[in-house]
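Follow-up to my post from last week.
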Amino acid sequence: MATLTGTGISTRLDSFAAGKEAALSAYHQIGRNDPGIAIVFISTIFDQELVLQGIRSIIKDPKLIGCSSAGSISTYGPKRDSVAVFIISSDSIEFTCGIGREISKNSRLAGHKASKQASDSAHKPKQAYVLFSDSFSGNSTNILRGAQETLGTSFPIIGGGSCNTECTKKTYQYIGSEIKTDSVAGVLFSGDIKLGMGQSSGWQPIGKPHKITKARFNIIKEIDKKIAVELYQEYFEKPFEELQKERICKLGISYPIGLRWPGDSKKYLTRVPLMTEDAGSLVMNGDVQEGQDINLMMGDKEAVLESAKEAASEAIGNIKGYKIKFAVIFSDIARLLLLRKDAHKEIDLIKEIIGKNTPILGCYTFGEYAPFDISESKGQSHFNNQGISIALFSE
Amino acid sequence: MDVYIIISALTIGILFILYYFEKNRRTASEKLNKRLQDIINQLDSQAKIIIKTDLALNRAQEELDKKITGLYTLHELGKEISSTFNIDNLFGLINQPFVLKLGFSKLLIMLKNDASGMLATRSSVGYSEVEIKTIESELNKRKFINSLFKKEQSVIVNRENENISQEYSLLDILSVESFITAPIIVKDEPVGFILMGNTSVYGKAIEGDSELLSILAGQIGTAIENTKLYTELFGSHKELERRVAERTQELEKLNEELKNLNKMKSDFISAVSHELRTPLTSIKGYASILMAGKLGDVLPAQKERLEKIDKHSNSLVHLINNLLDIARIESGKVQMDMKDISLKEILDSIVDIITPQVKEKNVSLKVTSNTKFDKIKADQIQLERALLNLLSNAVKFTPEKGRVLIDIQEKDNDIQFSIEDTGIGIPPQDIPKVFQEFFRADNALDQKIKGSGLGLSLVKKIVEAHKGKIWFNTELGKGTRFTFTLPKY
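User reply:
Got it. Predicted complex:
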């Protein structure tokens, strides 16, 4: 049997029916073989419980993992406001899942627990870890750090932050038949797998460089010795009230802060401000460091599309000629907001490189986990934003 | 000493020169730095302009996307609405995914109760039952109706237009940061409103939303109207069906009674005819014996009376036989003896029989037939009887030198027989009664012509017993054409 994949996408307005339709379509495509894992992405416009019930009405027992998303990415292209069910059936790949709760209390511990649970149940050689975390609670850098403590710093980790229709609304993580928030859910792929990964962003620095002069973990207190929020006030000519609390987030998704990557002045890890504190500090969705050179970043359609090609080419280069079974793609929500109707072009360009008929499973995330600057960092995954990360799997 | 002074002066001079150069270098460097800083600041200012433009473009694109998504979603809903005539189904379609797709998180559809005039919620998204009750109570109590749906235009309310104090407090009642409403109009009367709102400051209702909401309110209004019309139509249809069923039942009952009466009539006629035929046979027999002189000589006057007795007895026997036949055919006691018979033979036979009568009356008789199909499945005796009856009538009611035509045609699966005459025709008032038993047309000629008034009735019964149809066309003073069809097989 080897490995079979099935993809089901539904946009029906009836939540239960949408779940059932997507699951049925995916289940048919694997020829009704036993599903090894169901990876599910559900837009928050749907009643999450009802969608899962719909999916479970078709596929009752298998392992299920996933998260809420702004839209799905599949062989059929991107689809906003959809329910996506991807089923993988394989006799060579072992799938083991884990969950870490209360990331807002201790992100590192939650990340550690999820990966350990998945790792402890695996019997075959561990090859790749895919994780989905709550984007608005906790610290994504620490979630990743927790996973790397279990699996190893250079272990291939890919994934992203779950989404909602609005910046700061609750997001959901799924494991089995449970719907969680404030959690991280992960699935470990073990067995005889070859992997090729690639990542790129396409966001460019704009304006003059700045320096973080005071920061702690994921909170920037001062930039250029001025209150951090002033950076956004200055560039966007908005009073503090308009950027207060979570209001800055929507702006920050499209115009994040880029942290200059040491050793390469052209590369930036990006962070999105989730909210402001009363004193004007910026709460970012990943760690920052005092003394780091930063820039305000801006996206450009052409550069973003070009970056998708770069990521795909990098992934193809890394899989070293093995026949691709399927691809896992996570694209940042910022890319969807920038590309809008042209979002399909990004996926089309990737398909041209990885093969038009390669099954694709993925979704739009709020921040991605992927190896950053693979050649320099020996494949170590980082938490980044505005990027597209691609993992190609081969048996 | 002098040397010391010279060295000191030289040193001072050198230092001065060095100081001079250093000062110049620093000034140049500062100038360069300042210039660089100016350039960076200039670039930064340009970056701000780029960001501003980018933001404006994004906002425009976002609004356009929202509108396109909204219109597409409304189009999808419109298709669903057009296929439902159930108002609850309609409101079921305006569900959470639908509302979120339009970019809102809360929905209320409230309609005015016809009797009480109070607002009642018909559909909601994003509110609990308790919240709905509170909202209903607040809206009804505070008489917000005017501001919500008596206006003909949609209303946008957010925290920024605080001057509308009443509507501002609505934001708190509805637990939203902004909302938009549109009246639902049915037959030019506002019957309620649809409201969509957002709890987030991001999704503020904008002008572009009002068009979408007005379209949606219009669709709902039309659907309510259609549903009402459908319900009324369905009710009328049901009432009509009930009445038809009631009437049909009554007619069936009457029909049954008529059938019973008809049967009783047939039985009565049959019984009476039998009872009459036996003594009539005796009368006829005795009259024959008397006429034959077997009981002694018969005077001419007696013979004349006896012949009348015999003649009238024959008429009476004929009448009774016809009556009996009608009764028997009607009651189904007589089965048609269906056999393949030759049309030509039938025609020859009846022409033979009628020819003396035709000659006596001095009318012409013509037979036309274009049938390729010579055979027909029929009861030969009964068919001949029907044809003879019609022919005999035609000859009887056609004046001298008139014309009688027998025509036989093939009509699909039927054979059509027509007997046409140039006789006196049937008066319009008698047309409906022609096939009634004992009916005789009310005209001078008819009174002179003898007949029982059973012939045409019998013909009709015979044709119908063959699963055929009979009708006629007539014109007073010009003639009549009787036509009947019989199935070929």
